[in-house]
Amino acid sequence: MAQPPLSQQLKQMEEKLGTILIERTSRKTHLTTAGEVLYQEAVKILQQLEETEQLVKETSLGLKGQLRLGVNTLSAEELAPSLQSFQNKFPEVTYAIHQNESKLLAEMVRNHTIELALVRFPLELHGFDITYLNVEPFYFICDGKKDALQPGPNPNDYYGIANSKLLLPSTEGLGVYHSIIEYLAKFQLNPTSISTCSDLSLLFNLVESGFCTSIVPKSVLQLHAGRKIEAHLLDDPLFNSSYGLIWSKNRTLTKVAEHFLAEFVGIHD
């Protein structure tokens, strides 16, 4: 009489392993020591398969995975509320967050180091999908002491910018720096010197100490509320700072990135 398929498979496995897995008697069968080891390992494999299947499903739905995100130095304060809200909804997601200048972040999106980048405009945007989020004015800031800067002979120089040493919060030649330089040229404002500083905390410390002045977007100023400085709105409708999220047109976003994009836009809409 032919053996049942399971018995045949067990017999073949015993022959392959060169050991007895099940001891058989006329009344019952029981596992040998080797058979018990095989059984326990098989249970582990089945559990791992179930866990892997669940992980793949959750990853495909964006419930797990890694969010690879870049944020411009001047826009970091915009990120925290969105990340907190996103984490509450997707607690199993991990993060790889890069902070840098917008131009470098755009390059990181192009080479797939990150999926999304929160950047400041203007910026070369060929090959990107874009969600514009906000437009905000610039402020001229100085130390606020009694010997504060006085307006110069230029009728457009309300706050004495031409008599100041400017320390700008951007790398020379990049978007925000370029916007500020264009504004100064438009109104023929010629500060005694123009320098740059990528560390915002240090920049505000230096302004507060009287070492320099600066021009910053409104959101950056709000982040440093409470500083002993004076802030003056530069009220020109064409002089503003805009920011948004960019991602590659040539790659489909992961579900994790899609969920974060929806969350971020929803909060800042």
TrEMBL record:
Checking InterPro entries in the record gives: HTH-type_LysR_regulators, LysR_HTH_N, LysR_subst-bd, WH-like_DNA-bd_sf, WH_DNA-bd_sf
Which domain of life, per UniProt? Answer: Bacteria
HTH lysR-type domain: from which residue to which, for each copy?
1-32
Q: Which UniProt keywords apply?
A: DNA-binding, Transcription, Transcription regulation
Keyword DNA-binding present in the record's keywords: the answer is yes
Any one GO molecular function term: DNA-binding transcription factor activity
Kindly state one GO CC term assigned in the UniProt record. cytosol
Name the family.
Answer: Belongs to the LysR transcriptional regulatory family.
Q: What is this protein called?
A: Bacterial regulatory helix-turn-helix, lysR family protein
Its lineage opens with:
Bacteria, Bacillati, Bacillota, Bacilli, Lactobacillales
